[in-house]
Amino acid sequence: MVFEDESSEETSSLPYMHSTSSTDGLNQVPFSVEDQDHQGLELETMSPCEKHGKASERLVAFEGTDTGRRFLACAEPEGQNCGFVEWVDHQWPPTMQNALLKLWAMVEDSRSARVNDNLESSFTIHHLTEEKNKLEANYDKLVQDVHELMSFQEERVVDFRHLQSAITYQHECRSELVADMKAQMAKRDAESEKLKQNYEVLLNLTRAQATVIQNLKLKHITDKQLLSEVKMNLELKNAELTKSEEKLTQDKLELKFQVSDLLKGKEKHGEEMVQLEL
Question: Where is this region: Disordered (predicted)?
């Protein structure tokens, strides 16, 4: 019976052939692949099916370490196949068998990975389906809410004329407020300008006062220095006068001593004159 394997899209586009094992205990017919160079019934050699005595079918194995080996098998369909197998090619060398085992292991891993991916995709699709159902329920609820809102708005009709007049009144009030605010801002600007001028005048006065104070300080310092110099000169002159006064006092004492000596000499001379007269 011919069927397509799940991995045919990745490994090969050729169909596989599979036969069940015989009920007589013969060999199990391996999986096979169609090959143009080895197909059809074997009519040239005498290798008929042992049970049916008919010509064998040419096949190429496609499983395990026998992959690629040609063999002859019972040509009867499934259910009547006796499981007759006769190998045309010898077994592959051990290195080839190991390589084939690794390749088949890679195929199985790829198939398992694809199965896992399919499972994950199934879970994802299931999750997305649930999300879709939730969104649809939310959408229905939203539509219902919108209908209720529209019904509520239809029940409460707004008087647009009154609303327009109210809006116009608000605009007028706003215009008046804006005009008042502009007038107040202009007044504040004028006051600010006046304050600015006064500030500049005060600033100039303060600068002038600072200049005068600085000049007075400089003059005071200069006068103080001059007074200090005059004081020093006076102290020097006072010291000189003190020295002169001391010298005069000393000279006066000397003069007194001299006068006293002269008076004594005069008295002595007078006494001598008196004695001479006597």
Answer: 1-23
